[in-house]
């Protein structure tokens, strides 16, 4: 038996944080996650450091914000520098086996990082790695999934469906995937995760990230999941306007929502299969389980789809932590503010790994144990595109953000659907938000000289007790090789 917990990170893509049974949604079907929530702690105020896939995933892996790691928006032809990715190396150095299966998005699928993916995954500290890109990347990326579809004669139909969606230029097309549910990307990745669980060594603790690409569009819930919900019975969020996107009416949005809920139900089944595998392996009661997403999904709220905004539906994330063995009492919810960068710090803390200097997340374990009520006064989210930067601050009951030069302010206690902008009414709260942002930008900066000590302090620390400085210097000079500082001549003299 290992003295430290196994750690499972169940990571999804673009999951609206409101749409979970344990968050009180009356229509979604997430029984497995609801059961886990009843044994753990739910963070009701958790946010992504960036409401965009690639930068958010870099932040989780590095413990850094976009303005640290440099990626503010999805970008082609670039890879996250291996030296920045400290999560897996930190776990490996602490004695863990490390595995990640599914969507990485640490680099663009059109080109591998320098040295190839195998060298890259080794460099970032993974013992087991299998990248299965999201569906929209499938036509340009050969993977075990495309080989799987090809072997079953399904690849051409699957690619044809994606191509039609591309050619229409419409992410809101709703129809089931042309493959059976068991051959959908989320189901295939789950199978690979189950195989990885069986292959992990039992003589050391395990970290496993199961990274599924759903419920991100396309809206292609397969098989029975595509018909699990009746569009006519869908209740749209209160902040959904009467007319949407100039071309999609509310009836079409109900179709989208029904399909999206089908994908949520499928992901919940995937989570159940993974938990069952850990139970069968015999280590579930010693496993710390974290469920989250890189960011949310508007799904018609505020007349928007997708992400790239700071409303709750987009910048908010689901965050559930179940401790080993589950809570002795019924699971609970906390209003403590949390960020995806905190998941980085929490995982390393749970593993007994050293904190990574220069990262900015805070471990949430003190909140999980009840030792602390919170770890943040405010949390920040940010993104940028074409030279413009946007920032969000969540503090107390308030959320403030500035995007495209426009400030907005909401009191989430009185206005949880963010329908009444207070920017012209509550100047004091807006000023406090700006102060939080200024403090964040001043203090959350990487400073490689943060531990600098001047020469005299460093020398005194090396001297023996009672030793004279001249004696110390003579002793040190004898150790030096003559010529270490001599002029070098690089000219060819022959």
Key phrases:
single chain, 494 residues, alpha/beta, Alkaline Phosphatase, subunit A, eight-stranded mixed β-sheet, four-stranded antiparallel β-sheet, 15 helices, 12 strands, 33% helix, 17% strand, globular
CATH topology: Alkaline Phosphatase, subunit A
Number of domains: 1
What level of helicity do the residues show?
25-40%
Radius of gyration: 25 Å
Write the layout of secondary structure elements.
Layout: E1 6-13, H1 31-37, E2 41-47, H2 53-62, H3 66-69, H4 87-93, E3 97-102, H5 116-123, E4 128-131, H6 144-151, H7 155-168, H8 185-199, E5 206-215, H9 250-281, E6 287-293, H10 312-315, E7 319-322, E8 332-339, H11 340-350, H12 365-369, E9 378-385, E10 388-395, E11 398-403, E12 406-411, H13 427-443, H14 455-462, H15 469-479
Parallel strand pairs: 1-5, 1-6, 2-8, 3-4, 3-5
Antiparallel strand pairs: 2-7, 6-7, 9-10, 10-11, 11-12
Helix pairs in contact: 2-11, 8-9
């Amino acid at each position: 038996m290992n003295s430290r917990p196994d750690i499972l990170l169940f990571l999804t893509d673009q999951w609206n944080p409101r749409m979970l049974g344990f968050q009180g949604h009356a229509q979604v079907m997430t029984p497995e996650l609801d059961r886990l929530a009843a044994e753990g702690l739910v963070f009701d105020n958790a946010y992504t450091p960036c409401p965009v896939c690639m930068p958010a995933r870099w932040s989780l892996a590095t413990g850094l914000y976009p303005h640290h790691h440099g990626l503010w928006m999805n970008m082609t032809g670039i890879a996250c520098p291996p030296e920045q990715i400290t999560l897996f190396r930190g776990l490996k150095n602490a004695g863990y086996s490390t595995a990640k299966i599914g969507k990485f998005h640490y680099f663009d699928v059109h080109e591998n990082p320098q040295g190839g993916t195998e060298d890259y995954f080794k460099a970032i500290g993974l013992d087991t790695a299998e990248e299965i890109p999201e569906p929209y990347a499938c036509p340009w990326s050969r993977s075990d999934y495309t080989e799987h579809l090809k072997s079953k004669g399904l690849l051409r139909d699957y690619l044809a469906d994606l191509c039609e969606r591309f050619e229409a230029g419409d992410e809101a097309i709703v129809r089931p995937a042309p493959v059976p549910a068991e051959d959908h990307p989320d189901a295939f990745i789950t199978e690979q995760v189950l195989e990885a669980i069986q292959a992990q060594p039992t003589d050391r603790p395990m970290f496993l990230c199961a990274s599924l690409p759903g419920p991100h569009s396309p809206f292609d819930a397969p098989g029975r999941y595509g018909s699990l919900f009746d569009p006519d019975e869908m209740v749209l969020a209160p902040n959904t306007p009467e007319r949407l996107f100039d071309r999609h009416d509310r009836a079409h949005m109900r179709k989208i929502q029904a399909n999206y809920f089908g994908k949520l139900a499928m992901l919940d089944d995937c989570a159940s299969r993974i938990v069952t595998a850990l139970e069968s392996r015999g280590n579930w009661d010693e496993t710390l389980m974290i469920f989250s997403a890189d960011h949310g999904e508007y799904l018609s709220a505020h007349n928007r789809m997708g992400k790239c905004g700071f409303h709750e539906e987009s910048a908010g994330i689901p965050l559930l932590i179940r401790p080993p063995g589950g809570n002795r009492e019924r699971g609970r919810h906390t209003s403590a503010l949390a960020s995806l960068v905190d998941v980085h710090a929490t995982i390393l803390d749970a593993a007994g790994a050293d904190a990574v200097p220069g990262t900015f997340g805070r471990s949430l374990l003190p909140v999980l144990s009840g030792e602390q009520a919170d770890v943040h006064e405010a949390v920040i989210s940010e993104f940028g595109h074409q030279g413009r930067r946007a920032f969000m601050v969540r503090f107390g009951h308030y959320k403030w953000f500035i995007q495209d030069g426009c400030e907005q302010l909401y009191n989430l206690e009185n206005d949880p659907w963010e329908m009444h902008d207070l920017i012209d009414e509550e100047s004091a709260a807006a000023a406090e938000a700006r102060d939080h942002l200024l403090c964040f930008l001043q203090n959350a900066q990487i400073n490689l000289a943060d531990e600098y000590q001047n020469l005299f302090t460093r020398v005194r620390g090396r001297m023996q007790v009672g030793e004279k400085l001249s004696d110390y210097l003579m002793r040190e000079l004898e150790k030096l090789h003559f010529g270490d500082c001599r002029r070098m001549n690089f000219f060819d003299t022959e």
